[in-house]
Design a protein that fits this description.
Blueprint: E1 8-13, H1 16-26, E2 30-34, E3 38-43, E4 46-52, E5 62-65, E6 68-71, E7 74-79, H2 81-93, E8 98-105, E9 113-119, E10 125-131
Parallel strand pairs: 1-4, 7-10
Antiparallel strand pairs: 2-3, 3-4, 5-6, 8-9, 9-10
């Protein structure tokens, strides 16, 4: 058992096969338990669960952050910088569309970070980010 807590997140999808292709195939998340209504994925040791709920998918509000319209409802990971770069390259090579292209935010300020936003096939927004200095994750 890890000494670090793991999060659990359940989210709606319109199609479990599309979720398997995106989370399992594109992002490389191992699949865990499943049923005809849901499927577990291992997102770097965290349990995320795609639940079949087509009526819950879609609509997003945004909030302005550093010149971008960031989806208010989103989830993702803070990766090590090299892992973030490899993921960005893999996503680009796969032709993944981004809602916010991979880039650097808050340049030269506390909390400087590499970030990218994309949508899964059901319209759920994901953010993957990295900090050159992890001590800055919560810096003001």
């Amino acid at each position: 058992m890890t000494t670090r807590p793991r999060f659990h997140l359940a989210f709606p999808v319109h199609d479990l096969d599309a979720a398997r292709g995106f989370y399992g195939g594109l992002l490389g998340c191992a699949e865990g338990r499943s049923s005809p209504q849901w499927v577990d994925f291992d997102l770097h040791g965290h349990q995320i669960v795609a639940h079949l709920a087509p009526g819950e998918c879609g609509a997003r509000d945004t909030s302005p952050v550093d010149g971008h319209d960031v989806p208010v409802r989103h989830f993702g990971l803070i990766l090590d910088w090299p892992d973030w770069e490899m993921l960005a390259a893999r996503l680009r090579a796969a032709g993944q569309r981004f809602i916010i292209e991979p880039g650097i935010r808050f340049t030269g300020k506390p909390g400087e970070q590499a970030t990218m936003f994309l949508l899964d096939p059901s319209g759920n927004a994901l953010e993957f980010k990295a900090f050159r200095d992890e001590a800055m994750i919560f810096a003001r």
